[in-house]
Amino acid sequence: MNGNDEERLKQLLRGALPRVEGESEPKRDLWPAVLKRLDEKPAAPPWFDWALLAGLVGMAAFFPSAIPVFLYYL
Amino acid sequence: MEHEAGDVLHKFHHGDLDAFEALFRLHQRAVYGWILRIVRNPATADELTVETFWRMYRAHARFEPSRGFEGFARRIATHAALDWMRRIRTESRLTDELASDPAAAAMGDAAVAAEVRVKTARAFERLPAKLRVAAVLAVVEERPYKEIAEALGISVAAVKLRVFRAVHKLRKDLEAQGIRP
Fold this sequence. Notes:
The complex is a heterodimer of chains A (74) and B (181).
Chain A: H1 3-16, H2 31-39, H3 47-62, H4 66-73
Chain B: H1 2-13, H2 17-39, H3 42-58, H4 70-87, H5 91-100, H6 102-107, H7 114-125, H8 129-140, H9 145-152, H10 156-176
Helix pairs in contact in B: 1-2, 2-3, 2-4, 3-4, 5-7, 7-10, 8-10, 9-10
């Protein structure tokens, strides 16, 4: 892909997604919604997060030599 | 004045809700505007602004007052938007709007036909979220690479690579649809 092609594609993209013009601001005060969100109980981690954690702990216990490899790819 | 601002940042670092509200009032417009540039939908930008400030408050202990609030806010806002883009596919909404909104048509390049515009938007929405964020900020909104890199927590070179990959994938997708850019 040469520079002209790239520029043409960028122009296509600008044509398809017009720029958000000027300064924008929310139409309502969002502070009450932030406060409400802060009051909510934090959501519990989904079950698959726990399953993943259990799998990692299991892997570390049975294959300790894999830990450096795992850390390398983290 | 500067001392006062520093004081607010330190108070926020310790979890003070009044200081957090002061920072919210000062930065909500910038945060909302940044998110809107990424997600391009005011209702979603509202929702994600709330989500961003919620995440900021939860991360108050990790906030470093010496590094200022703006970068911290922008980074969290960008990741909130990125998470949303990974969760939600906006293809149908975006392209329906494009097809039906004459104002959008007028704002685009007049030489670009409506069909090409819709196909380009669809192809764009099919890109991975992390490429879309980099491309929309760099190409459409024309934000400086350094600013995007800081917001995404990656290097300038990585931003350039993401933009390049986005444009490359977009080209392949359009060619597959019979459009030769």
